[in-house]
Task: structure prediction
Amino acid sequence: MPVGWKKISVVLAVTVATLSIQACSNSSDDDAKDITVYNAQHESLTKEWVAAFTKETGIKVTLRQGGDTALGNQLVAEGGASPADVFLTENSPAMALVENAGLFADVDKPTLDQVPAQFRPSTGKWTGVAARSTVFVYNKDKVAADQLPASLLDLAQPQWKGRWGAGVSGADFQAIVAALLALKGEDATRAWLKGMKENATAFPNNVATMKAVDSGNPDGGVIYHYYWYRDQAKTKESSSHTALHYFKNQDPGAFVSVSGGGVLKSSKKQESAQKFLAFIVGKAGQQVLRDGDSMEYPVASDVAANPALPPLADLQAPVVDPSELDAKKVTALMTEAGLL
Amino acid sequence: MALRTVVAGPRVGRPGPLVTTVALLLVAATFVPLGYIVSEIFATGPSQAAELVFRPRVGQLLANTVGLVVCTVPICVLLGVGLAWVVERTNVPGKAWWGPIFAAPLAVPAFVNSYAWVSAFPTMHGLSAGVVIATMSYFPLVYLPAAATLRRLDPAVEESARALGSGPVAVFARIVLPQLRLAILGGGLLIALHLLAEYGAFVMIRFDTFTTAIFEQYQSSFAGPAGSMLAGVLVLCCLVLLAGEAGLRGRARYARIGSGAPRATARIRLGSGTIPVLAALAVVTIGALGVPLWTIGRWLRIGGAQVWDFTEIGEALGQTVGLAAAAALLTTLCAFPVAWIAVRSTSVFARMVEGANYITSSLPGIVIALAMVTVTIRWAPPLYQTVTMVVAAYVLLFLPRALVSVRAGLAQVPIGLEEVSRSLGKSGPATFVRVTLRLTAPAAASAAALVFVAVATELTATLLLAPNGTRTLAMRFWSLSGELDYAAAAPYALIMIVAAVPVTYLLFTQSRKAAGI
Result:
C-alpha cells in the first residue's frame, strides 16, 4: 500500500513542480523594481525601448502584448487588482478609456514637461509618446491623382463602392473613427460608417490593407503612414505600386493619432513605472523613434522625425483633444453599422 | 480476511467516493463556460440581447458559418471515403505509402495551412478559400476511421452480394457505405466542430465566422456583451451539430455476429484507371502537404539564417513545451476517473459525466477562454492570468481527446487481475497503480501525446488567457504572420509541424490497430 501512495504522490509532485516552474518563470514582476507593461504598441518598438531602459536602469520589464482597446478594457475590468504597472498604446482612445475609469496615476511633472501640450491630455493623467498620421494609400495604376478623395468623408460616396479597404477590427482604424466622431458628431459618423459598410473591404490590419492595395484590389485604403515608409525603406514588397495621399486641410482624414503611455494608480512599483515613462519621452527614448525602423513620429524632447518622413508640422492635422476620443462609443457605432 | 474480499469481489473496480468526487468536480467545471454564456444572456437583458443577436451582421456570420460547414463536411467525407476506398480496396501502386501520406496533414495546424495557401495565392479569400483550406486540413479526420473500417469489414458479405448479382457500385452503396456510417458521422462531426472553432486560418483569408467575429469583438471591447451574445449563438450551433449527429447515428448495429475470421478482400484492379486515380491522389497530396511544405521551405530560403533567432525561438519553445507538458499530464490524470466511471459503471451518472465532457469539447476555445477570463476576473482574481488558469482551460478543451484513449485502454484491463490484487491484500490505490495503471500506460501515453500536440498548436485560448510575458510558438507565429512577415514566421511553422509528426504517426498506427477510433 505505501508503494502505491508513493507513486501517486510522485506523479502529483511532478505536476505541481511543472506548474510552479511555469509560474515562477512568469513572476519576475514580484521582484522589488521590475515592472509589467501592458503593451499595445508594436512589440518590436517597445522591445527596443525596454532593452535600452533595462540596460540603463537594471529594471526588467515583462510585456503583455495585445490590442489597444482589448488591453484598455481589460485594465478597466481588472480595476485595482491589475498586475499592470504601465500601459502603452498605439492610439489615444484606449488611454482615455482607462483615464475615465480613474485608473491612472498622475504622470511626473518633469516627464510631462518634455512633451508639447498638443501631444498630451490637459489632465496630465497620461502622456503622448509617439505619433502617427492617417493617410490614404492608393494603387497608382488604379487611381489617377485627380480622382483622389478630397476628404475622408468622400469614401462613403457611391463612386468608392468596392474600391477601398481598412483594418476594421484594429484599434488604429477605430481611432480614426473616434476622431471623425469628435470632429463631425454622432450622426455624420453613423452615416459615414453606413457608407463604409457598403463600400469597403475589411482587412485584419494595416499591413494586410496596404498589401492588398499594392496588388490592385481594392484601389485604395485608409492606413497610418509608417507602414508604407517602413516597407519603402526595406523591400518595397508590399508598396511598390502604391503612393500616399495626405488629406491635409484639417480634414478628419488628416488626423494625427497620439500613442499614449500612462502609469496605473494600482501599481506597487510607482517609481520604476514613472522612470520607464520618463525614459520613453526622454531624448534616448525618442531617438529610438528617429533612428530605429518604426518610422513613427517622435513627439517629445525636441527630437526630429526620421528624415524620410514629411515633417509633422506640415500635415495640417485637425485639432482633437486626445482625451475626448471615445473608444466605447466607436465600438458601439461600428457594431451598429454591422462592421463588427 | 479472504472471505471478506471475496464477498466484496463484485464491487472491485467500481468507482469509489474519491473517483466520484473528482469526476463530479470535473463535470461542474465543464459547465462553467456554458453557465457563463447563459448568465451573460440574462445579464444583458432580453431587449439588448435580442438587439445584439438579431442584426444583419449576425445573419451574415450565420450564413458564412453554415455555408462553410455545409460545403466542407460533404467534400471532406467524399474525399476521405474515396481515398480510403482507393487505398484499401484497389491495386493502386504504392499502397503502403498512401496511408501515412493521407494521415500526415493532421500534423499541419490549420492556420499554418492557411498561411501557406495565402502566401502561394495572395488573392485567396472568402468562402471558397475557406473550404479549400479547411478541406486540406481536416479530410484525414474522415480518412482515418473510414480506412480502418474498410480494412475490418468482412468481405464475405460483399462477396455474397456480388454472387447474388450486384455490380461493384451497388455493393459499395448497399453494403460498404452503410457500414461506414459511424466513421463518416464521427469524422464529419469532428470536422464541423473544428470549423466552428477555427480562428487563425479564417482570419488570414478574411473569411468571417462566429469565432473570428467574437475575437474581433474581444479586441474592441474585451469581454463585452456583443461578444458574449455571438458566443451564445456559436454554442447553439455546436449543440445543433451534436444533436444532429446523435440523431443520424441511430441505433443500428454494425458489428458482425459470431466470430468468424475476416479475410483480406480481393482488391479491385484499376487497369486503365490507374493513371487518373494516381493523378487524383497526387493532387490531394500536393494540396495538403505540398503547398505547406513548399511554402515554408520557400520562406525559410528567403529568410535565410537571420530568421532563426534562437533566443526568441528557444524561449517560445520552452514556454510551449512547459505548458503543453503540464496540460498533457494533468488532462491525462483527469481522464482516469471519468474513463473509470464510463467503463465500470452503467449508471445515468456515468453517461452524464461522459456527455458533459463532449459538450464542452464542442465549445470553441474562444468561448471557453472568454468565460474563464470573465469568471476569474470577477470571482477568482488570484487565479486570473495564471498558468493554472490557462492549463485548466486546456484541460477542459482537450479532456475528451485524452478520454477516448484512456477509456479504450481501461476497457481492456481484465477486472480479474484487479480482483486478484485486492484478494492478496493490496489496497485500492495500490491495485490501481500496480495493476491498472501499468496495463493502461500505453493508452495514457498516447492520450498525453494527443493533448500535448493540441496545446502546442492552440492559439485562441492561449491568446486570451496566458500570463503576462507568455509567447508560445503559436503566438509568435501568429503575430509575425499577422504583420505579413512570412519569412520570420516560417521557423515557428516548421517547428509546430515537426512537433506534431510523432503524434500523427501514433494516430495513424492506432487507427490501423483499432477500427473506428
DSSP finds twelve helices and nine strands in chain A.
